[in-house]
Every structure is written in structure tokens, then in C-alpha cells.
Design a protein that fits this description.
Shape: elongated
Helix content: over 70%
Distance between the termini: 59 Å
Strand content: under 5%
Number of strands: 0
Largest sheet: none
Number of helices: 10
Structural class: mainly alpha
Length: 182
């Protein structure tokens, strides 16, 4: 497009960024990012949300964080991209931090946020905490599950019972078990 003198708009740039994310083409995505900085698209939230999603899908969440922190405004798509990025990398502290910040800034979990977590991120975190017997982090994930009403899902209940049992907290394991029967 550029070679032919065609100026890309926010839709074409966002489509290229989406393709970069799907194909895990971080190098090309960074080139597009550099191009955005030299255009009038620099302040377009639609474009920057596509950029955040691309970085998250390319497992370059630290790059996404830099972009996120510089955004003058954010929407639910911006927040969801960061939650996806951190949870995909198993960075549960940052995932929890973003979910809490999201809530404090008035953004509610929506179906996209929930689906990101439900697709196994929460479950992976609980399983990891069980293996290393990291009770404190496991309780934080459990709290997140309760606040998100995801604690009632069978797989999550099973993972919570396993976590508490392996961490020798049979009382909590029993509570989760009894709640799962209700």
C-alpha cells in the first residue's frame, strides 16, 4: 500500500495488526507500530487496541504494557487485551493487578474477560499453585474466581479442592466440596 502511495487508515492498520497477532509475527507488528507513530493514527484508540492485542498474542506483554500505560484513554477492549496477555503468560500477579485496577476504574468484567479466564487461565493458575503448594496465590485466584462467579464451575471446584488438599488446608477443601454439591 505504502509503495503505491496509498495511505492506510485505521481499519487497514488494525487488520494488519490482527493478522500479525494471529500469525505471531512480532517483527512485522513492531514495524507497523513504528509506522503508527509517524501518522495521524497515533491517538486512535481503535488502532491502539489492535496493537495491544497483537502484542498480547505475540507473547510480548511487556511491550503491550508500555503501550497501555501511555494511552490517554482506555476502554474495556484495552483492559481485556492486558488481562489476556498476562494470563496467557501465567503472570498471575499482574493478571490480578489488572483485574483489580479494571474494577477500581469502573470497568466490569464482561464475557470476553470471563472467557479469557474460563478458557483455562484460571484453571492453569490453580493447578500451578497446587503443584508448588503456593497457598497464598491460590487463595488470590480463588478470590478472583468468587468475584467473577467462576468458582462454581466443576473444573475450577476440582482444582480448588486439589489446591487446598495439597496445601494441607482440609477445611477449605471441604467447604469448596460442599459448595460444589449444592
Amino acid at each position: 500500500m505504502l509503495e503505491r502511495g496509498i495511505k492506510p487508515d485505521k481499519f487497514s492498520i488494525s487488520s494488519v495488526l490482527k493478522a500479525c497477532g494471529e500469525l505471531r509475527e512480532l517483527g512485522l507488528g513492531k514495524e507497523v507500530h513504528r509506522h503508527i507513530g509517524s501518522t495521524d493514527l497515533e491517538c486512535d484508540l481503535f488502532v491502539y487496541n489492535a496493537l495491544l492485542a497483537m502484542y498480547a498474542k505475540c507473547r510480548a506483554v511487556d511491550n503491550a504494557r508500555k503501550v497501555f500505560d501511555e494511552l490517554p484513554e482506555r476502554d474495556i477492549v484495552s483492559w481485556n487485551s492486558m488481562v489476556l496477555g498476562y494470563s496467557s503468560e501465567g503472570r498471575w500477579d499482574e493478571t490480578s493487578e489488572f483485574l483489580e485496577r479494571m474494577r477500581l476504574e469502573g470497568f466490569e468484567l464482561n464475557s470476553v474477560t470471563s472467557n479469557t479466564i474460563i478458557r483455562g487461565r484460571l484453571l492453569m493458575g490453580l493447578k500451578a499453585c497446587s503443584v508448588i503448594r503456593y497457598l497464598t496465590q491460590g487463595k488470590e485466584i480463588h478470590g478472583l474466581a468468587i468475584r467473577s462467579t467462576l468458582d462454581v464451575l466443576e473444573n475450577n471446584s476440582n482444582a480448588l479442592i486439589t489446591l487446598y488438599s495439597k496445601c494441607h488446608n482440609i477445611g477449605y477443601a471441604r467447604i469448596v466440596f460442599q459448595k460444589s454439591l449444592a
